[in-house]
Write a sequence for this structure.
């Protein structure tokens, strides 16, 4: 047997063990998150916990919304934020040097006027050109600044915010009215919490009135349905599971809440990464450890943020390549955590998992497919084995997605029609036949982008929430 | 003969397929049963509502109402039905509802759960019995306060707070601050359910020096414990505590000073003859910040020069509140702000312009 054949055999064996490892961890996460969700549900039933936290004891909070070329969605996002149920909060929209009419839309809809708001420049950010207040909504502030990217806009918002907590929301996202109360409740119940986040769901084709999702509907778009299944997996057993064991490494940039002081102490969002949300969560953990402060980063599945997910092949590809690049930047920017027992489950379990399975996953998956095909063609592997192995792999994928759908059904039941759930089950099957491979390829390209130090954000299609049929604008970074 | 590897793979495939089918079937069945259950509950609740309202109006006696409502012993549904009423009812209507719950067996059912249930069961029972103000369950709930389980401690504290019995207040406060990770705010929020009647107890506690040392027992930080008590006096606007708080202020540490000033602000009144100067010039910025806010209650012009100086404070919040205080101080305050906008001190000029610009529209800060 030639050396090449031996290498192929060993690589095939490695791929099989890698596959067993990744799916073993996922299955374990399903169990852990099921128990975690059950315990959260018991707590809610037993303590009626969102009921009492409505008084002056609650910490006031700033909702920061960075916006770049968001004329299509910004007004609805602002209305959604202003309609939140929370004792004391202000909404800070940061116009990051948009080249479209974002600022004009805000001026027109909210009757803006410039004023001399004073603030501390706690974190460096690009020049702030002006600060506006609304004549109609006393708790709305608009910051107009030179373009510096999403992270820079968030840093500007943190500087202008004056409250002990801040929440960042993407400008193409809407949050449920009670979501803030639900997440901030965690901050009241545990003084160690420095950051917390909720679930993200696809808003595409849902009915939206006055910035609120009034009816959840399943989008007819092919790409959106795949993403709905993916989001359920990512949030209901991914983040819920990691959070249960205390190993959470990421909070969604579309909706998360932080203690302002902790973020200022870490220097705010980094400007040289596209994975600013994950990078910040990891850096907070490093800094808190360095200064010997007890901390917790937690995820709560119930508070929901509705976001527009990409509807086109191009939009989705761009987003996933960017996410993979952001993952790589965040992991290598905080490598100190890797296998460091001081970081507990984050250092010893989550970080190695993310490095070996999320970061390297696309490389192993793509090369695995190629080596399998080559091995069959050269007779190293017999076709029945390959067919059965791939069948088992597909079934495991379906099993994981079905578990996420089942948890969604048990605990949240967002989709009112049973038919929608069955359609999603169909997509959980379908995704294994080309979407999964395509996704691996996009992530692989994202790694190439990372190694070639590509910096651009790519182009995102933006549609008005109420007019989903017609694209209204584009946003480029 | 099939290769053993292939055989194993075939078995794995069969198991995976079976599990997927089971999960899918569970999903469908859960949806169907849940819809059915919801429908059944809606029908039951409609039926119960009629019986309950007739009972409250006196058209139906206790035994008959209890017999009709409790016939199928669906206690969790019954709790769901009564819960919204219990939140708002007071006086004889509440007493009648409680008597009905007792007659139905709901109270006995949850008392049993409180003693012998699992964690979730005990926690729900504490909530139910608290909402029904069952004083006979206080002893059992006090035991739960000592639990290592945070959910049980929280549920017991909430149950005790709602039960209307002021006695366990201090134990609940100690348990929340010592056996859980609750913040001041979170603990105070739950303890506020004990109602204004706990204020004289808190005042007595704060007067008693030996009692102040006691909370250290459960690893509770005495300063945190005292701060929550003071916050509650402020929350309930307990004016009678003003002399006590003034007395405490003379010997208080930084943290306690902050909470006392905060309580004055919430009560909306400062003790007579309180000299704010040492607090306005205090080295800790939070004390300066709250004393500026407390100054707004007096409007005493002798402090205007200090407030003017605070417009240049190194802390943004102190500058902000000093400017706000001056903005609300009428003509002399506005004159200071106008003078400062043109002054060389950038920080004072900036915060003064900000305050003056806020004079037209008042954002909710």
């Amino acid at each position: 047997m030639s050396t090449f054949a031996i290498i192929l055999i060993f690589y095939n064996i490695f791929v099989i063990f890698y596959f067993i490892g990744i799916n073993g961890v996922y299955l374990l996460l399903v169990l852990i998150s099921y128990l975690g969700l059950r315990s959260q549900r018991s707590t809610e039933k037993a303590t009626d916990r969102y009921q009492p936290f409505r008084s002056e004891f609650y910490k006031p909070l700033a909702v920061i919304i960075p916006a770049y070329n968001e004329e299509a969605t910004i007004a609805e996002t602002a209305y959604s934020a202003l309609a939140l149920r929370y004792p004391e909060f202000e909404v800070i929209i940061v116009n990051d040097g948009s080249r479209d009419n974002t600022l004009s839309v805000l001026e027109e809809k909210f009757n803006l006027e410039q004023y001399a708001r004073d603030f501390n420049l706690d974190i460096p950010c690009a020049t702030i050109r002006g600060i506006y207040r609304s004549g109609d909504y006393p708790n709305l502030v608009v910051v107009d600044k030179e373009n510096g990217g999403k992270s820079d806009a968030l840093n500007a918002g943190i500087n202008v915010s004056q409250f002990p907590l801040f929440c960042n929301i993407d400008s193409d996202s809407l949050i449920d009215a009670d979501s803030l109360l639900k997440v901030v409740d965690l901050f009241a119940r545990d003084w160690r919490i420095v950051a917390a986040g909720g679930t993200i769901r696809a808003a595409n084709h849902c009915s939206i009135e006055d910035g609120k999702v009034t009816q959840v509907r399943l989008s007819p778009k092919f790409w959106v349905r795949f993403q709905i299944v993916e989001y359920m997996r990512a949030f209901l057993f991914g983040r819920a599971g990691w959070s249960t064991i205390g190993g959470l490494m990421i909070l969604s940039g579309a909706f998360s809440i932080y203690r302002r002081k902790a973020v200022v102490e870490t220097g705010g969002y980094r400007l040289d990464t596209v994975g600013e949300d994950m990078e910040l969560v990891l850096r907070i953990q490093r800094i808190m450890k360095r200064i010997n402060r007890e901390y917790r980063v937690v995820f709560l599945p119930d508070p929901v943020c509705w976001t527009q997910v990409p509807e086109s092949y191009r939009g989705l590809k761009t987003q996933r390549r960017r996410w993979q690049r952001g993952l790589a930047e965040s992991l290598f920017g905080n490598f100190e955590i890797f296998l460091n027992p001081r970081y507990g489950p984050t250092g010893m379990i989550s970080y190695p998992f993310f490095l070996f399975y999320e970061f390297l996953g696309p490389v192993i998956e793509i090369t695995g497919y190629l080596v399998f095909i080559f091995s069959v063609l050269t007779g190293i592997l017999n076709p029945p084995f390959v067919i059965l192995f791939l069948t088992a792999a597909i079934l495991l994928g379906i099993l994981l997605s079905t578990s996420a759908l089942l948890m969604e059904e048990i605990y949240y039941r967002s989709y009112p029609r049973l038919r929608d759930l069955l359609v999603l089950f169909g997509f959980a099957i379908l995704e294994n036949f080309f979407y999964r491979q395509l996704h691996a390829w996009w992530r692989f390209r994202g790694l190439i982008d990372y190694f070639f130090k590509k910096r651009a954000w790519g182009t995102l299609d933006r549609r008005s929430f109420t007019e989903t049929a017609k694209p209204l604008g584009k946003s480029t970074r | 003969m099939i290769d053993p590897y292939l055989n194993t793979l075939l078995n794995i495939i069969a198991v995976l397929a079976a599990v997927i089918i089971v999960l899918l079937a569970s999903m469908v069945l859960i949806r169907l049963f849940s819809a059915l259950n919801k429908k059944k509950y809606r029908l039951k609740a409609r039926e119960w509502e009629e019986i309950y309202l007739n009972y409250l109006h006196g058209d139906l006696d206790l035994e008959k109402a209890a017999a009709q409502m409790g016939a199928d012993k669906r206690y969790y549904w019954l709790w769901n039905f009564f819960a919204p009423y219990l939140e708002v009812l007071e006086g004889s209507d509440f007493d009648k509802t409680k008597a009905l719950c007792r007659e139905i067996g709901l109270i006995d059912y949850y008392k049993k759960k409180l003693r012998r249930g699992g964690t979730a069961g005990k926690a729900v029972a504490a909530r139910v019995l608290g909402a029904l103000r069952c004083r006979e369950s206080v002893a059992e709930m006090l035991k739960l306060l000592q639990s290592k389980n945070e959910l049980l401690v929280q549920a017991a504290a909430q149950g005790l707070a709602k039960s209307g019995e002021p006695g366990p207040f201090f134990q609940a406060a100690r348990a929340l601050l010592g056996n859980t990770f609750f913040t001041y705010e979170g603990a105070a929020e739950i303890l506020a359910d004990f109602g204004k009647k706990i204020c004289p107890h808190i005042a007595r506690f704060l007067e008693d020096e030996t009692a102040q040392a006691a909370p250290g027992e459960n690893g509770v930080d005495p300063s945190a414990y005292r701060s929550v008590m003071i916050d509650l006096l402020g929350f309930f606007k307990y004016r009678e505590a003003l002399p006590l708080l003034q007395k405490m202020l003379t010997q208080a540490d930084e943290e306690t000073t902050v909470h006392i000033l905060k309580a004055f602000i919430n009560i909306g009144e400062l003790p007579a003859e309180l000299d704010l100067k040492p607090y306005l010039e205090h080295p800790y910025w939070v004390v300066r910040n709250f004393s500026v806010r407390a100054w707004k209650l007096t409007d005493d012009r002798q402090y205007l020069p200090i407030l003017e100086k605070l417009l240049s404070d190194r802390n943004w919040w102190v500058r902000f509140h000093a400017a706000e205080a001056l903005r609300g101080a009428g003509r002399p305050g506005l004159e200071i702000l106008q003078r400062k906008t043109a002054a060389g001190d950038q920080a004072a000029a900036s915060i003064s312009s900000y305050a003056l610009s806020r004079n037209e529209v008042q954002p909710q800060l």
